[in-house]
Amino acid sequence: MSHPHPELSTPAALPKGGLRITPLGGLGEVGRNMTVFEYDDRLLIVDCGVLFPEDSHPGVDLILPDFDAIRDRLDQVEALVLTHGHEDHIGATPYLLRERGDIPLVGSELTLALLGSKLREHRLKETVHHVVKEGDRISFGPFDLEFVAVNHSIPDALAVAIRTGAGMVLHTGDFKMDQLPLDGRITDLRAFARLGEEGVDLFLTDSTNAETPGFTPAEKSITPVIDRVFHESQQRIIVACFASHVHRVQQILDAAYAHERQVAYVGRSMVRNMAIARDLGYLKVPPGVLVDTKDLADLPPERQVLISTGSQGEPMSALSRIAQRNHNFVHIEEGDTVLLASSLIPGNENAVYRVINGLARWGAKVVHKGNALVHVSGHASAGELLYCYNIVKPKNVLPVHGEIRHMRANADLARATGVPNVVVAEDGVVVDLVDGVASVAGKVDCGYVFVDGSSVGDITESDLKDRRILGEEGFISVIVVVDSVTGKVSSGPEIHARGFAEDDSTFDEIKQPICDALDRTVAEGNTDAYQLQQTVRRVVGRWVSNTHRRRPMIIPVVIEA
Ligand SMILES: [Zn+2]
Ligand SMILES: [Zn+2]
């Protein structure tokens, strides 16, 4: 991936007493959040998450932040702070720990528990954990950290205030300001105000919903909608939501209890995360509600509820397999109700509608964000952000967590409240806070790092381009044998195609032009195999483009014999 800001150069040395902020992910996309803070030659990292691939990344499992900018300096890292347990904030941590396993991990109880099970899956042991909670203050090298409760679509999320000799930074993490949350744990605006009184030099704020006017509705506002779905459903109910959305699962469990239904979890991450949340007391399971999937199948349909992963249409998820009717034990039937209780992450629309259509084909009634209020966002809308700016009164603002349009909208909100200096930066753009003023200092590399099976970082953008061409345009191979003495074609061309034409005879008309072009190339004195292959590629490429309007991958092989 080319750098979004080629005009910037490598930053100069950080002035003494200055704080350098280097976003390695999350600024320009919703995903792979990771920000590095540097003070006095020591580093602090906030979050280390993944980005999920889109249709334009065929075969890619995950996208990581690029650790290149800090790879030689990992011994200077004092700690990695995890603001909350979402994949876009913790998912890349195992890959960072593979490079230095003893980086101290700092986060809330639930965040570190969710991360812990992930680290065990990656067989990473001996990691260093510091469990913190709101109000705690703890120092790592020159970084004095204070944690503040924030409300989000996962319990136990934290904002972090980072004090150094350069001033105070307040990083909201992901947050919203639900005033009536299910667990009663609100974003601590009193702490925001107190930090504002002390003086927030730089405020990093969640931009996800900055374009959405007003306030994000309360989680509780969807309870009556869920209740109505339960009331109206005559048969089985299948709910799909994020495997980390403890409060949404709580609402479903409560509704099931009220309507005398029983619930089973489907999907490995759902089973695992809800067990952790229950063990730690974040999820309260009403008595007798939860059963094994096998026991659930023995109940009549009107007593069954399944809570499943796959709300984003992920092809391998439980819900996708249910929609294709190839799930091991969940067989969708006419009259079943499917409730998609989740947001639609940009880029996943096609996959989600494919699943909805698949379910509808079997006669299921699908209730989703598009036809009922079954989900509210986990992020602050414009109104909430305005409140925050007015309460905190920061000197500088750096919008984070969003596509460029979200960050620009967030910057406009900050300016509207009179914030004196707002810096909009994307991944890899280095921002220095010196003498109380934040400004762009340069850039570092920060391309996408692709995880494909067990390989990390081996797949490049050009490999993906090849995959896209193969997937969309097909493949033509042309094999020609030429006489090594005369340069004349002695056998072939033999042409085969995949994903292109039904019949190889389609290519008969291009065989003679290939031979003629090779003769001309040889006559011009160009006889090495590479040049002959380029000739073949050119002739075939022009022909398919003109006659078939296609641009398949062309693999010419010229053998001298
Ligand atoms: Zn989040
Ligand atoms: Zn996030």
From TrEMBL:
Gene3D superfamilies, sorted: 3.10.20.580, Metallo-hydrolase/oxidoreductase, Ribonuclease Z/Hydroxyacylglutathione hydrolase-like
First-level EC class: hydrolase
Keywords tagged on the record: Cytoplasm, Endonuclease, Exonuclease, Hydrolase, Metal-binding, Nuclease, RNA-binding, rRNA processing, Zinc
Subcellular location: Cytoplasm
The EC number(s) this enzyme carries: 3.1.-.-
Ligand binding (substrate): H375, V376, S377, G378, H379
CDD domains reported for this sequence: RNaseJ_MBL-fold
Statement: the UniProt record of this protein carries the keyword Zinc: yes
Residues annotated as domain Metallo-beta-lactamase: 31-226
ATP-binding among keywords: no
Function per UniProt: An RNase that has 5'-3' exonuclease and possibly endonuclease activity. Involved in maturation of rRNA and in some organisms also mRNA maturation and/or decay.
Record family assignment: Belongs to the metallo-beta-lactamase superfamily. RNA-metabolizing metallo-beta-lactamase-like family. Bacterial RNase J subfamily.
Subunit structure: Homodimer, may be a subunit of the RNA degradosome.
Protein name: Ribonuclease J
Gene (name only): rnj
